[in-house]
Write a structure and sequence with these properties.
The protein is an alpha+beta fold and about 290 residues long. It has 7 helices and 11 strands. The chain starts with a helix and ends with a strand.
Length: about 290
């Protein structure tokens, strides 16, 4: 059904007025962002010819997100993730030239312990051993001494400590400080694909949309150094299930890294490993702050 000239004129007037209503915000960026948000949300309503019932269902959905949201579980963040908004923000806000960023996800914890560079995070738990090492460099390949790495992942059962009372809250997570050449290394286990929480309104939306609920296996990292733009990212083992169908759209080509069989005897001895074990190597590139 096409829109009559009268309806088009009315919708344009409403959009203009609503955009203009933010023009005097004390923060000019707030004025700009809110006017653009109004513009695009109004265009969405106009183009989809949203019915009142559909609009009410949308409000019910947001209310259901609010009702299930707690300190530990934020359904709005999850909604942002599965809509690809979190990934869009990553892409447009990260400066070009460095390692691509990817979603933070809900399982980052600020209180991870500072461990020695070279830490063994495995503590006798099940899981294929991975020697993960590499460097942090600038965009010219020059090492960044003493860069910081914050690392976290899920356990062999696919769960993060926050989802699994059997796990120590510090399991498979750490902060480490790189050496003078930007080098880091640690021993960990292979991560596993993981489903986003499906017991709330976002899960119902994914089911109604017949969408995949899985994320591919990944390591989470925050890499930072004074004078450089901080990097929130993930590394995805090459060949992981769901790597082409991440439900939160976090995979970037530059973040897919192979696990390689490794028989380095010094490393095997240091960690008490039977060779071959798995090795992952990665160079993180940070962009200088303006
Ligand atoms: C995760 O990486 O664990 C995750 C990311 C986004 C939504 C849910 C989980
Ligand atoms: Fe994750």
């Amino acid at each position: 059904m096409s829109t009559s000239p009268q309806t088009a004129a009315l919708t344009q007037a409403v959009t203009q007025e609503a955009m203009q209503s933010f023009a005097h915000a004390t923060d000019p960026r707030l004025a700009q962002v809110m006017a653009l948000l109004v513009k695009h949300l109004h265009a969405f309503v106009a183009e989809s010819k949203l019915s009142k019932e559909e609009w009410l269902r949308g409000l019910d959905f947001l209310n259901a997100c609010a009702a299930i949201t707690t300190e530990e579980r934020n359904e709005f963040s999850l909604f942002s993730d599965i809509m690809g908004i979190s990934s869009m923000v990553d892409v447009v806000s990260q400066p070009e030239g460095g390692t691509p960023s990817s979603v933070l996800g809900p399982f980052h914890n600020h209180d991870s312990l500072l461990r020695d560079n070279g830490v063994d995070l495995t503590n006798g738990q099940p899981g294929e051993r991975v020697w993960f090492h590499g460097r942090v460099v600038d965009t010219h390949g020059q090492p960044i001494a003493n860069a910081h790495i914050d690392f976290w992942q899920n356990a062999d059962n696919g769960l993060y400590p926050a989802q699994d009372p059997e796990q120590d809250p510090q399991n498979l997570r750490c902060k480490i400080v790189c050496d003078a050449e930007g080098g880091f290394n640690l021993l960990t286990i292979r991560p596993h694909p993981y489903t986003v929480p499906t017991d709330g309104p976002v899960g119902a939306l994914l089911a109604a949309s017949q969408r995949n609920i899985w994320r591919p296996a990944h390591y989470h990292l925050i890499v930072s150094a004074p004078g450089y733009v901080g990097l929130v990212t993930e590394l995805f083992p090459k060949g992981s299930d769901y790597i082409d169908n991440d439900t939160v759209f976090g995979v970037r080509p530059g973040l897919i890294v192979p696990f390689v069989p490794c028989s380095n005897s010094a490393v095997a001895q240091r960690f008490g490993l039977e060779a071959p074990f798995l090795e992952m190597t990665y160079e993180f590139q940070l962009v200088k702050q303006d």
